[in-house]
Amino acid sequence: xxxxxxGDWEKIQAIHQRDPRFRxxxxxxxxxxxxxxxxxxxxxxxxxxAVMDCDLQDPPEVLPKMLEMAEAGNKVVLGRxxxxxxxxxxxxxxxxxxxxxxxxxxxxxxxxxxxxxxxxRQVVDGFNQFMDCDRHYLYILNWLGFDPTFYEYxxxxxxSGKSSYSLVGLVRHAVSGLLFQTTVLLRYMIYLGFLITIxxxxxxxxxxxxxxxxTPPAGWxxxxxxxxxxxxxxIACLGVVGLYVGRIFYQVRQRxxxxxxxxx
Length: 264
Prior knowledge:
Elements lengths: L7 H11 L6 E3 L5 H11 L4 E4 L11 H9 L4 E7 L5 H18 L7 E8 H8 L8 H8 L3 E7 L12 H14 L3 H29 L8 H32 L7 E4 L1
Parallel strand pairs: 3-5
Antiparallel strand pairs: 1-6, 2-4, 3-4
């Protein structure tokens, strides 16, 4: 329970009282989806561990089949959704995000794959070794390198309530995934800087040629435009570098990824 306001902790306690085999943890505050998954994986003790969202759009009844696939020797079994039941805006955002991830990082992610999964203990132990503050569940599984197997199922409508991800939250999550999981964007900035430098040198040579021909360009419009473009590019680059430096600051403080308040 990542401090849900809907009384989830009381329900977890009631389930534990009916059957002590069920265990639960409550975090000290809401640390976010992927850190909540991390907390659960750090506490799980079984040979196989299932991860799923609690909105029931991913049906729990598919887990026995996925467990069978895992017990057959597949260390990572991922659920692949058929007919995602998200809004058109959410689907468009996911498509744009996946496209940018492929272009910037070279990683290929299936938009129909979510967090529903069954992992072998070896994969869970590898996952728990990560101490990155900025993390994405599927990114880490991809980095671990175990070949995944997919189980296809029909995506359902949300059982109740609405997604806790607002538009701002989705944008923040996308920026975190794009910037802080790879340094490819920094390399693109270097390439663009070299390109602008070459264009500037070529333009300078052209102006010198016009001056020698006694036909210098009239007015300062071109100069002002060039200064604005270069100034904007410099500020944007400094902003991106600042974001990376800020995340380094967060990482080197070595704060705990999450804090567990209660256990049952």
